[in-house]
Each structure stands twice: as C-alpha cells, then as structure tokens.
Amino acid sequence: ICEQCCQAEGSIRCMSCTGVHAWCGPCAVKAHRNLPFHKVQRWNGTHYQATSLMDLGFLWHVGHGGGPCPQAQENPNPEESGYVSGEGPPNYRRSSRSQMTIVHTEGIFTHEVSWCSCPGSDPIDLHLSLLRERLFPASISKPKTAFTFEVLNHFLIDALECKTSAMSFYQKLKRFTNNAFPDRVPVEYRELMRVSRLWRDLKHRKWFGFGHDTELDPGEGGLALFCPACPQPGINLPPDWKARYDRQYVIDGNFTAQHMKMNKPEMDVSLSDGKGYMVSEIPYQSHLQQSVDNKERSTCSNHRAINAANINKSNLRSTGIGATACARHGCFVPHSVVDFQKGERYMNTDYSICNALSYHSENITTALVIYDVGCQWSVNFRSQVKSSSSLFLPSGLEIIPAVGKFHLAAHKLSCFPRYSLNFVKGAGHLDGEILETLWAPFNKISPTARSMTQAHRQEVYDDHMRDSNWKKLVGIVPSLLKKYKTSNKCLEDMNQAYEQLNAVLDPNKVAQWELDAVKAEADRGEALDIYLLRGDKAPTFHEAQLKLGKNPVSSSANLGSVAWLAEGISIEDSQ
After folding, report:
1. What is the pLDDT of residue 73?
2. Is 418 left (phi over 0), alpha (psi -120 to 50) or beta?
C-alpha cells in the first residue's frame, strides 16, 4: 500500500532516498517534486525493475519553485506538481514543453521540461531559465542538453585531484546510469568537453573578481595565484621594505608535457590566452621568430637540456614545457610557462625567466636564479636580453646564477664553488630541485593533454598550476611554522659545533678566512674559487716504486727491500 495516499498499490521504491519507502506512481512524483535525479524502481510482480521519474509522469517545471507556471491555467490555483499524460486538471492550458537530457553526478537523465509562460519570458532566453535552475545549457539557442552545476564541479575536482580525463569521467557517469548496458545511455561527451571549458573559465573569472565586469580585462597572469610568502612590493611587504628582501627562482623543463600538431589550428578558440601561467601565444611566437638559435654545445658537462636543443620531432608542435617557480615554496610564477619546440633552448628559457623576474618585483634589486645549466646560461644571458626587442629586465636588478644541488654533482669540479647554493647568502637550505617534485602530478595528465587543442591544453595546464599554488597557499602557515621550529633547533646545533671548531683553530687564520669569505661573496665569479677543494694527486704504483728506490740506504736496511715490497704488492693485487 502506498505510504502517502494509503489507497493505491505501493509498487514504486526509490534507490536514492534514505530509508525504505513504497509509493504509487502519482505519489512518487509528488515526493520527488524537487528531487529529479533520484533513481526509482517499479515492482512488476516478480522483481523490481528500473524505471524513471519521467515514465511515472514527472514534469519538470522551470521556475516557480518546481510548481506549474500560474499563467498556464486560467484560474491559477495549482496544487499538483505536474502532469504529462492527458490534459491535466480542469481549465489547464498546456504550456510549451520540450524533452531534455540532463547530466548529473548520479548519471544521465531524460526529463520533460515545462517552460515558464509568465509575461516577459522569452523563448530566446531559455538558457537563462536553465541557469536559474543551476543547470548549465550545452547551447544557447534551443537547448536540448544541460549539465548540473554539481556535476561540473565534480568533474573539475576529479580532474585536479585524480587526474581524470573527460572520457573516463563520462564513462563513469554512463555506468552509474546503466551499468549493464552503458551503450544505451545518450552520448554527451563532446558537450561535456565544451561546457567544462566554459565552466572553468567562468569560475576563475568570478574568483579573481572579473565575473561581473565583462569590460575589465584580467591582463597577463590576471587569473593566476602566486606565492603568498615571497616578497611582492605593494602586496605583502611593509612600507620600509627596500633593500631588505630579494627573490629566489628555479627554472626547469618537462619533456613529458608534449603536444601534437593540430589538424585544424584555425578552428581553435582560446578563452584565457596568457591570463594564467602559460604565456600569451602571439607575443611568444613573435619572440621565437626574432631570436637567433644558439646551437653551441655545453662546455661544462654533457648536459641533456642543452645538447637536446637540436632534437626535433615532426609530429609534435611542442616537445615539452619550461616553467619558473619560486625556489623556496614551489609556486609557479604567473605568465612564465613556455613551450619548447626543439628541446630546451635558451630562447625559450630566457623568455620564461624575464617574465618571471618582471612579475610583481618593482624595486627588488637581487634575484637568485637556479637553473640546471646555470653555468652555461648565465654567460650570455645579459647580452641576449640587450639584443632582443621582446626580452626585458627590471632596471638595476642583480642576478645571481646557481645550480641545484642534485644537478651540480654532474657538473665539472670548477662549477662547485661558483654555482653552489652553499655559498649564496640567504639561500639557506635550498636544494633548487623543487620543480622536479611539481612535475610528478603533471606527468599524469600529459598523455591526456598531448592530443588536446592548443587552447584547451593551455587551460588545463593553467588550471593544474593554479590548483598547485592554491594548495601551497592554504598550507603555507603550518609549513612555515614547521620549518621555523626545525631551523631554530638546527641553528642551536650548528652554533655549538661552530664554536667548538673555532676554539681549536688559529684565531689569525679564522680572521683571514672571514675576510676572504666576505670578499668572495661580494665579487663572486672566480673569487669563489677559494672554496674549491685542492688536493695532491696520489702517486701511481710505479712512481712510488721509483721514489723508494731513490731513498738512501740505511745501515740496517737490506738492498732487496724495495723489490721485496713491490713483489708483495703485486701478489696482493693478483689475489
């Protein structure tokens, strides 16, 4: 018996409602007046069989809180939530209706929709009526498909946290709808791809304060977050900040983030070119055309980043990406991520570094730039900037080049004192390799982004970099607090060890070493060679044998002692 009317047979149950219920068809429709995405089943005499609310007579009234439009009746006194079959109650005038496919987190649903007939409602504005119902239409004119705000938010979070592709996400929805026969479910994959891009762009513009002013342009990097702890004049510094702060950057490339050439690039539409972390396409391409390709190979070690600059793959538009981030906290710098065309060339990285150095850095005089091949890059960087019309640096900025601690081990020995972070004041315990950890999640989305359009790929990478910076932002306080406590403990231990070492050294030598260290820090370059390890080369076996043979013979020594020692060493080596 129906639990609501207590008259008809309760053959309908809902699999989405909490608890156990039994309704007749009309009562089930009334109970789900504002729950259109619940899944119901009907008892057929032997078992429960899946059905839908639309099959039970559910009519989705757009507007008026889910009730019928009063203008659809001559004597407006609606008490019922909707009718599909027949003519409805007495004096009921049938309003405009259409059937729509609606995608929700619980699956894909088909509903009969009754549009509002009130004065002022225009059939051209059906998409606005859907938006008021928290439904995003797949098209503006005569929409037949819509996505709930909830499912679009789920897709964005799934893509950011689980690295889920649009195809995998839609396949999941199809199985939620009909796990036995998913092929019978309407295919709205292309609509999901298009609507999700629009939804992502609208959300970001709203979050950054541009959602309600269509005339205001966000500008380069205007839809991007940056590090809350790095010094940014006019944003997070006190009025007397000058000469007290510097910036620290790290740059690195990712050759997994490739991009295939598009068949019809003229059909691509960009929604936020240059507004996030990747640079604007047209100015960047203009810079590449004006720049001269420097094909000289590395004079330090056989660095892959430089020697791979001549590698070209004909089917790829981009062989990877290069990014600049703050070295201490690992936040991507807005409008500084570039595409590679033939490996990691200086013309690419120079553009990224110049954009990063110019981002919110007015009157900052010192910048530490950590690069895997900093020893080679820093040689001609200034001259490349002067000769280029598309590269700019803040005036009076001093750049200190360095190499990350992991990559420094692959350099020549002479690079150690000149580019080691151990000899840069203020570098602290920086390792200069934080971008390597940030690339790990990007490698999971690279296969999906590889075949996207250029604009779509840019938006996806911007979204993931923005999310990475957001996680850094919300976790910066406990992270800095933990590091502060650790550094205080380490400082006490190091001071104690330093004092113990000074106590056993010659004070005159210590004073001279301190003067040398101050001079090396000021002059840098070759002046830092004072830290270069110098050690005498160990003599070879034959040199040691010859030296022993030339020693004067003592009165107690045997003439055959040298030969005896040499024979003993030979026997030991042979074992």
Report:
1. 54
2. alpha
